[in-house]
Structures are given as structure tokens and as C-alpha cells.
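Minutes, project huddle
Topic: does the predicted pose make sense with thiamine diphosphate bound?
PN asked that the exact inputs be recorded in the minutes so nobody has to dig through chat later. Recorded below.
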Amino acid sequence: MFDNLDQAPGKLGYIDARGKPVRELPDEIDVAWLQASYRHMVRIRQLDKKAVALQRTGQMHTYPSCLGQEAIGTGIGLAMQDDDVLVPYYRDQATQTIRGVTMQQILQVWGGDERGNLFTGVAAKDFPNSVPIGTQMSHAAGIATAMKSRGIKQAVVANCGDGATSRGDVYEALNLVGVWQLPMVAVINNNQWAISVPRSLQTGTRTLAEKALAVGIEGLQVDGNDVVAVYQAVSQALARARSGKGGTLIEAVSYRLSDHTTADDATRYRDASEVSQAWEYDPVKRLQIFLHELGHWTPTQEQTLLAEVKQQVDAAVTAYLGEVPQAADDFMAYVFAEMTPTLLAQRDQLLAKLERDSVAQGGGSDDSR
Amino acid sequence: MFDNLDQAPGKLGYIDARGKPVRELPDEIDVAWLQASYRHMVRIRQLDKKAVALQRTGQMHTYPSCLGQEAIGTGIGLAMQDDDVLVPYYRDQATQTIRGVTMQQILQVWGGDERGNLFTGVAAKDFPNSVPIGTQMSHAAGIATAMKSRGIKQAVVANCGDGATSRGDVYEALNLVGVWQLPMVAVINNNQWAISVPRSLQTGTRTLAEKALAVGIEGLQVDGNDVVAVYQAVSQALARARSGKGGTLIEAVSYRLSDHTTADDATRYRDASEVSQAWEYDPVKRLQIFLHELGHWTPTQEQTLLAEVKQQVDAAVTAYLGEVPQAADDFMAYVFAEMTPTLLAQRDQLLAKLERDSVAQGGGSDDSR
Amino acid sequence: MTAGNSAQGSDTHEVTLVEAVNLALRRALTDDPEVVILGEDVGTNGGVFRATLGLREQFGYKRVIDTPLAEALIAGISVGMASQGMRPVAEIQFMGFINSAVEQMLCHAGRLRNRTRGRLSCPMVLRAPFGGGIHAPEHHSESTEAMFAHMPGLRVVIPSSPTRAYGLLLSAIRDPDPVVFLEPKRIYRLVRQQVVDDGQGLPLDTCFTLRQGKDLTMVSWGAMIHETLLAAKELARQGVEAEVIDVATISPLDMVTILRSVEKTGRCVVIQEAPRSFGVGSEISARIGEEALLYLRSPVQRVTGYDTPMPYPKNENLYMPSTADIIEAARATLENA
Amino acid sequence: MTAGNSAQGSDTHEVTLVEAVNLALRRALTDDPEVVILGEDVGTNGGVFRATLGLREQFGYKRVIDTPLAEALIAGISVGMASQGMRPVAEIQFMGFINSAVEQMLCHAGRLRNRTRGRLSCPMVLRAPFGGGIHAPEHHSESTEAMFAHMPGLRVVIPSSPTRAYGLLLSAIRDPDPVVFLEPKRIYRLVRQQVVDDGQGLPLDTCFTLRQGKDLTMVSWGAMIHETLLAAKELARQGVEAEVIDVATISPLDMVTILRSVEKTGRCVVIQEAPRSFGVGSEISARIGEEALLYLRSPVQRVTGYDTPMPYPKNENLYMPSTADIIEAARATLENA
Ligand SMILES: Cc1ncc(C[n+]2csc(CCOP(=O)(O)OP(=O)(O)O)c2C)c(N)n1
Ligand SMILES: Cc1ncc(C[n+]2csc(CCOP(=O)(O)OP(=O)(O)O)c2C)c(N)n1
Ligand SMILES: [Mg+2]
Ligand SMILES: [Mg+2]
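Predicted holo structure (C-alpha cells), as shared on screen:
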């Protein structure tokens, strides 16, 4: 499953697959931090489950689950400072929610509503996720260039998958980080698969971290299922970046426990046994056991958390399902800062057409053509 | 001038900048081989000089000189076998002529005549040079894929400059060589400059050879001004490739002694002192001295060679200048295997227009509009 | 596929468009050892739309190749392979991801023959599912065929039915020059048709007249052919006989068929899903205006998408041209006398 | 530049088109600290055409940035910088090398505002010299403006004189949305004009009528404006008054100006250097046919390049539309009565 042994999540972190400590926790990691991480991870897993369920019942479009990737997103989210900028990919729901993107917004995006990208607060300058694989990495490099040029001590975190490392633009962006010493931390979510293509068919290197060598930046591998390891790696890399010491490439070794998206059927191309084995590395479970064995997580706490999270997720779903539709012409209104005469004319056509259809159907335009 | 000391040409080869042996020559290199190499290098330098002169006198369009790069091209050309395929870039005149591309064809290409790409014989499957930087590397990977898929023991040599290593498609192609173990040898002509941009602004790595690490192939640096070193490195890499052991990235460290092209003025961005220092590493001179000190090159031989080469170059120039123009509609005739109705109609328009203009000008269409 | 699976002989299959693609690929792989399939997820997974389903099993790893995730590379190695006499049929997973392959298609695929005055050529096919209407995420619904149509040296071919998918794809693969083959994914599984798997190609560079009519000409391609035919049917019910032309090969354009029809009907509606301005419909409309002006009894009408990105799925339908839009445009051409 | 070099105040300069570009860049750098120049060889070398000459010296390394050789990267980091409020003005060395930047322009630059419903925007300019006629090597002569014109969310702007280069570039840089700014390199140094360096932009999204005329309308852009004006002059000598319209902003297209003129003249020639089919001229011709049909006294004529790659320099002139071609087309529109 994992290309080679030293990539197995649990070998490069603090808490192993069975929830046992691998080495002493860093000083800044206390019980409160661990509990908070755990809460984030449980919350995002529930949201994720709900999103898949909504898709299955026709209330959501294609959705990319982050099942099994919660530690990566959470570790990054907790490591980032408010004035850092996040350039996510589509499995970064955990990081996004920590940065204040609402669960409703996440549902909106995959429910097919651009308003889900209207982030506010800390996330106001963050990018929405990028669908064309890899293209976001140069945006991040550009943001890092702006930060460096303005002399602000901020940094960018940019994420992508293992498959994305085959794209030339990812290399181009990382190469720029190296030559311009940009304050950027790139995290590769190596979940072993790019849809049906295994990591071993993407590149001949033993690790993805070593791609840092080709661009002259730091590179390291961490256990992507260990939230402490991800947090530590990203925190330290961000500190380096903010202090002008340049960028880092972090390979977070993990596993995609879900189908690629709800449109995918992973049983077509990978063994059930591989997946069930991967479940033994579950990032959420291991943290629960760890906390529990430390004496800091009880079944009662678990139940309270689940109830609380259920309420939050349900509230988000209710808000999502109940939202006021966008104005019909919203998809024209933001193409340019001001609508051009061409678009104004096209808007008139659209509105006339909707009027026509509504009359033809006896009122109310709907989803069918 | 050279980013760091171990890149200085002369340090990674057999014959140093002063024409002194650095280490024992490989067995297969004998006097005849050295003399043949020297002849090639002198010939290409003369052709190159002539091409620049033709451009200065308005008989040639923009031309990229290979002054100072003769050892790279010659070393590669001599290392390749007939059934290997060359995917050159625009400074590979030396390799091309060794593979049977005629001097006249090289002049034709830069004189603005597509017929210069009508290679025959050994070069019949070679690519013409590629103007969009880096794009040729994936052609080479595709050719290597075809070879591997057909089970033929051939290999591809693909070349590019130091600047080209910043292009994502170069990385993509090399990555494929690594993961598919393709029979391809990539040679980077690190001539320290990409037009006005020094190597140090292209990437943060210490060498370009180490980019091989990111794609899981062999990588090495050689003295690109030492024809023996280039030959050895490419020969061995080709042997590995042909025997199914995968690809190699060779960084040939050199220096662009000329302007970027005849359209460039390098004095705008680099010091004369740098260039004159680089002349001390001249690949042609050092081989001459080496041969001379071995007792195998006399002033008489030099004079004979120069006379002989002059004759060859002059003949090529005469042929080039005297060639029959292409048919007016040739630029339409090869767009598709057969001219489409659209193109046939456009050809009629063209011919009518030429007829009209010829009548208007009292016969004979010319170069002015 | 409801009929037998064998690509030998000439079995008849009742297939959808995507199954017809599969059938053509299978036939090409069987007939010509130089044909190889490559792309992302085309192997074990059989393609995200299952266009390459079962091909890996039948033809093996060497002929059905999963590539790394890099579209510029997919196009670039196809150029290289084709230059040596192979016949690569590359899949771009969605047309929205074809953009990094633009450079290879424009600079090399379409020019290799011309650049070398016929010494090297580039018999490759770049397949991509295109168009909207399946409620897919952003960038999964693009129709940028105009971009490729403008590139010299490329053919752009678009089937609109299972039979045409089969016949045109075979011809595209056998064509000695590069073809961008765009598959209208919205109708991938819309209807089944009898396809005789006899290895017969259909002609490229020629329109297909799907319906004869004397009152007006409707010109379209790809998935919009579906709405166009529905509109023609409704118009017929209203007593108006529309001629329906499937352009099929977008470039080079067969204007003869279109002009002949417009000369007969004097009225024309061009239907395209892509954004309105600078689309393929513009060329067709321009050519009609320029070459059949005296026959035109009414201005050419274009029914198109808007000059906007395709909206996220919730509002996708606001963007898509509809049957009613086509009927309205047809009526408008009929009003001018 | 023959006059003073200062970008302060409002000196008058007698400049070529490329010098006007330089003047506008200098002015933008002076006025707005968020403006940065980036690209290959734009620094010490001042750009291969010298468009950025002296800017590095005046504004330093942080504002005038030599990038690695990677066009996708240049566009991509510009998107990133612009999203944070900077105003990157990126140079692509030749339009023939813009193709790897297509994905960023299409998928991101033109969509960031729409995707985020106005939260993020992309005020960047992508400059590139374009067009043929300077006997440059392959890929140095492309005119692929139609490709960008079809992309929602992008402006495509093309100046045809020093004054318009200055004014349009300033407006492009100040525009809140992405602009592809194409500079006709064939006329980079053709004429000098008085340019007042007063920081005044010229309006985008609007045609410029360069010559009034009642007999026919000639529509063009970029370098072909030169031949178009020559043709108009010759026609005037022959007693025919042509109205000459410089489209200037290719997308979004100002059809009002064009239609108003054609309604007056009833005849139109569209002149484009790019390959004929699916070019910008197709859209213009289509719109005229569709919206001014009743005014047309003769079919619109297009004078264009051929559907071929630009030939290598020796035969470049065979490809290029000429003044005589324009006159011939104009005459053809006049023959139809
Ligand atoms: C440029 C591009 N090509 C193809 C796709 C289709 N696609 C979507 S996700 C995906 C696989 C991505 O794999 P990876 O980078 O490992 O990320 P993961 O989904 O595994 O997290 C592909 C091929 C795309 N979105 N963009
Ligand atoms: C894609 C692309 N971008 C830009 C150019 C313009 N250009 C031609 S050569 C060159 C520099 C190439 O440098 P390098 O790769 O080091 O090769 P060298 O010319 O030094 O041998 C540039 C930028 C081009 N030809 N192709
Ligand atoms: Mg993955
Ligand atoms: Mg170089």
C-alpha cells in the first residue's frame, strides 16, 4: 500500500497508528491543543460524511471526500497564523474550516453555488480551491512574492496531491520558491492515489519530498495521519518562511480512505484489503486512543462532542438547503468589475428568456430544460 | 562566471582549459578520434562564423551561434549511433552535421526556408530544432516510449539550455523518463545564460545535474568544453539507456561565447571581462593544444584543415544562396497530407494575388509589400 | 453494450455514444498494432467515463497506458510517438484540462508536417469529453472547440451520435494528421443506436445533413444537435420544415453543405453551446453572410451560451441554450420576410 | 525618445510605439507602488524589444523582475500577486510563447472574480509583442488574439499607434480586471508621434475611428491598421472615401461603432493578419451580417492571413495581407450595387 516502508504513516511522527507515542511531544503541544485538534477532526469527518450522504440523495453534486486526510488539514490549519494565506486544493476542508470558512460554504461550493467562495475574516484573502490540478501552486508563489516584496512577515501555505507533482507548473512554482527564496510552504497530500493511478506510476523517485532537491528548498516527509507531526512540520516551515529563510516542501504521507469523489468507484482499481489495512492508520481513531490513554478523553466527552458536532453539521446543512438562490444574472454580474455592454445585452436576453419560459410553464423557472 | 567552482569546465573532464590532460583518456579514444573531433569542431565553428557574417550582410535572418558550444555538439554527435534519434535544440548545429544534416540545410533553416528540415539518411527521423523552449523534451520522451514499446534497442538524445530547465514541461518529460525507465539521454547545455538571465536566476540549486534527483534518473555534470568528457558521458548514458537501464540527465557546463543570437547584444548585460575569461576555456583551442602537445597536430595540418573547411563552408553558402525558391504555395501544401478544400481555395486566392501583383509591378513578385 | 463484445468480424451492437467510442478504440487497437491509448486513468479504471473500458484487459499495459498527471506531457509524447509512425490516441480527462496541452497542439502537432515539408508527420488523436449539462464541478463543462479550430494543421471533429462517434473516431485515428476529437459527454449515454462494428470509417471534413427541410437551415454540432433535432421536430409540428446540419468536422469546415442548404432555405440558425463571441458559430455565420448574402431572407441567428464562464452546477441550466431558445430563433428568422 | 525622459509632469515626447509602451510603464510604476513589471529579460536587458528599457535602473530589482524561463509561471504568479492587490504587468517575450500561459489566463485570470463572486480579483496585464512581418524565426510571428478574445473575463487590447499604446496601456494597467495587451511589433518603430506623458488613459472597450468616410467601412486592428490606412489613402485618391475603424479592444467588442459606420456605408472590409478561419474578423463579420443585414449593400469582405502556419521568413510575405489586397477587397464591395 505504501510504496515503501519508511513512508508508512506512523513512522515519521509522534503518535503511531495504534495511538502510541513514538517520541516525546513538542513543548507547545498540550492536552488542550490535542483535544482541540481532535474536535476539529471529528467535526470535519462528520461534515464530510454528511456531504457524501447529501450527494447520494441528490442534494449535492460531485463531492471530494477528505476521509482519512483530516490530520493533514487540521495540522496545517492550526499551524497557520491569521495573516498567512491559504491556497488550498479540494481536499482541504479541514484547513479551510479552521480558517473560518463555514461548513455551509463548503457545502455550497460542492452544491454548485459560487457564493461558497465568499470567505470572510481570516480567510478573506485565501484562495478558493482550484480544480485544474497543480495550477494553484504558482498563485501561491505569486502571493509569496507579493509578501516578500511588501516586506511583510507572512507566509503562504499551498497544497496539492501526489498526482499533482507530475504537473510541470507545480515544479515551476517550487523552483521559483527556491530561486527567489519565497515564504511558501507546499504540502503534498500523498494519499497514494490520483483517482485510479497509484503513486508509483506518477514518478520514479522513492519519496515525493526529495523533489525539493531539484528546486533547492527544504524537503521532508511526515506522517500525514498524525496531526502533531503535520502541525510541527508546517509550523516550523512557516517560521522559517516568515523569517526569510525560504520555502519548504512537506510530503504528508497518508491514504485516501474514500473514493476519489462521489463520482468514482475505487473498488474498480484497488483491493478492499488495501483499504481495510489503511483504516488501521486512521488519523482520527489514533488521536482518540492517544488522548484516551493519556486519561484525557472519556466516552462521555466523545458523546458530547458527537452530539455537538451533529448539531453544527445539521445546522450547516439546514442553512445550505434553505439558502436563497442566487439572482439569475449573478453568473454574469461578476465576470468583470462592471458589466460590459455585451454582457448587459446578454443579461436582457437571459431575463427575457426566463420570462418566456416561466410564462410557458405557467410560472416558476426550474432546473429542467 | 561559473556559478561555483566545481562547475568550471575543465574540472569534470579529461582535458583541461589549458589543453593539459586531467586524467587518462578512455580506451576508445585514440588519436584518430581526437583528430576527427577536432575537425568537426573547427568545421562547425567556421560555418557558425559564416552564418553570422551572412546575417550581418543581410543574407540570413536571426541566427543562434554555437560559438563555444562545439564540444557539446560534437561529443554528442560522435556518441550517438545511427539508429538513435536526435531531438535537438537550436544550438546543436555540431550534432546535426555529424548526423548528416548538411551545412546548407542549417543555413536554409536560419535563412528562413523550411526545406532545411528535410533531413535524410541517419537523420531522417531526427527532429528539427524546436523554437518554443523546452517543448521538445516531451517529444523525445514520446520517441523513447515508441522505442521501448517496440522493443528496439535504440535511444533518444534530447538537448536544451540551462534556461529551459525552468520550464515545467522539461520536468514533466524527465519525470516520465524516470517512471517509465525510458531510453533517453537529456543533455543540458549550461552555457550560463538564457539571453540576459544568468543561470543563478533560473534556479536555486547548486547544479542542474541534481535535478535528476527529483525524477529518479541518473544525473551528472561534465565539462561541456571537453569533447572527450561529453562523448564519454553521453556514450555511457546511451549504453545504459539502450540496455534498458533508464535515462540520464547530463549537465554539460560551458559558456555562450557569442551573443544569444544575431538579434542580441550581450554587452548590454554581461561584462567583457567575463567573456574574455570564458575564452580561456575555449573547447576548440584546448583540443588543438592537446593534440599538438601529443605531437599529433601540426601547423600544416591546421592550415590544410582550414582550407578544406573553408571550401566546404563556401560550397554550402553558394548552394544556400543559389537555391531555387520554394514554390509560392509550398507553405500551404504541407499543412495537411492533402490540401483541404479550404486551403485549395486559399491557394487559388494566393496565386491570383501573385498574378495581380506581378502584373502591377510589371512582372516578378518580390520581398516587399 | 447489449450485443456481443467482439471487435472482430462485423457484429452489430446497440450502443450509447461512449460505448461506440469504446468500440472504435477496440477496433483500431485490433486492426493496427501502431495504435496505442494513453491518458489519465484510461487503464485499470477504463477512463472516468469508461470510454476505454476493458481495453487494458484485452490489449495489455503496452497498448493502454496510464500516464502521469500532466496534460502537456500527454500531448507532447503523443507528438513524439506519432513522429515515429505510431498512432497514439490520447485522452484528456475533461476538456477543461486540455489547456496545458494547447502549446503542443498549436506549436507542434499542427506544424510538424509543414515544418519538415512532409518528412515527419503527426497522426495523433487527442480525445476529450466536452460540454456542460451534467452538473459537474467547475472546469468540467468547457466547450473551447473554437480555440483548436483556429489552429492551422489540426482537425477538430465532434460526433453527435453513436454511429458517428464510431465512424468518425475510426477515421480520425486513421487520418495521417492530428485530430482533436471532442466527445459531447452530456449525450454519452442519452440514446442507443445500432452500430455495425465493421471497421468502416465515416468521412471527415464533411457535414452530415440529419434532416431535410426547405424552410430554414439549422446548423449545430455535438450535444446541441439533440436540442436542435427536438426543435426541428416541434417546428415540423407547427408546419415549418427545418434542415438540420451536423457540422461534425469543425475544422476544416465544410461550408459547401451549409451554403447549399442556406441557398435553398434563405434562413439559418446556428446553435452552439460555447460562449457566444468568437466561437465556431461566428465563422459559420460570417461565411453565410459573406457567401450567401443574396440568398438570405433574414439575418442568421446564433443561439449560444453567454460570454461567461459556465456557472457552477446549480445555475448551469441558466447558461445552457435550450430547445425553446432554438425554436424562438427559428421563428425570428421566419418573421423577416 | 527624442524629448525629455522624465515621467513626472506631462512632458511631450516624440516617440515610437515601443517607446510609448515604455513611457506608459514608467508612468504606471511612478504613479502606483503596486505596479510591478515581470518577465524574461525585462530587467538589465530592458526586454528584447527594449519595451522595459531603463526601468530596472529607475525602479530597482523589486519592481522590475527577471523571471525564470517559464510562461505558465509568469501568468500564474501574476494571478497570485494580483489577487493580493498588486498590479503585475507581465511580459511574454513573443506571442508565440504565450501558449503555456493559456491555462492560467483561461482558468484563473479570467475567472477569479466570478468564482469568488467579487471577493478576489485579478488586475493584471499580460503584454506580448505579436504579429509577423519582421522576418523572425518560427513562432515569433503569431497572431492568436482570437484565442484570448473567446475567453470570458479577459480583455484583449491592441494599440496601433504610439498615442494609443500609451493611453491604452495605462488604462489596461489601471483596469480592475485582467487584460491581454498585444503589441504589434512590426510597427514598434514604424512612426513617431507626439505623446503627452500626462498619465491620461484612453478608454478601453471602444473602437477608434481613424478616418471618416461615407463609401465603405474598413475595420482592423494592430499592425494591419497601417496597410488599412494606406489603402484608404489610395482609395481616396481614386475618389472612394473609406471610414477606418481601429477596433483597439478586441474583446469585449464595441460593435456599436462598427455597426453605426456600416449602417452609413453599407459596405465593409475587415482586415486581420491572423489565419482566416475562426479569427476575430469572423465575429465582426458575423455580427455585421446579423445586425446590419438590411443595410448591407454588398457582402462583408475579409482580408486575412491564410489557414496555415506563418511561413519561415523567406516566404513570410506570401502570407501577409497587403495594401493591394485591401484595396482589391474594397473594390469588390463597391462593385456590388
Ligand atoms: C489539470 C487536471 N487534469 C486532470 C484533472 C482530473 N482530476 C481531478 S483529481 C485528479 C487526481 C488528482 O490526484 P492527486 O493530485 O493525487 O490528488 P487527490 O485527489 O488524490 O487528493 C484528476 C486526474 C484535473 N482536475 N485537472
Ligand atoms: C517558451 C519560450 N519562451 C521564450 C523564448 C524566447 N527565448 C529564446 S532563447 C531564450 C533563452 C534560452 O536560454 P537557454 O535555455 O539557456 O538556452 P541558450 O539560448 O542559452 O542556449 C528565450 C527566453 C522561447 N523561444 N520559447
Ligand atoms: Mg492523491
Ligand atoms: Mg543558456
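Observations noted during the meeting:
- Confidence is low (pLDDT under 50) at residues 364-369 of chain B.
- Residues B 91, 131-133, 160-164, 189, 191, 193-195, 256, 260; D 40, 69, 71, 93, 97 surround thiamine diphosphate (ligand 2) (CB under 6 Å).
No decisions taken; revisit at the next huddle.
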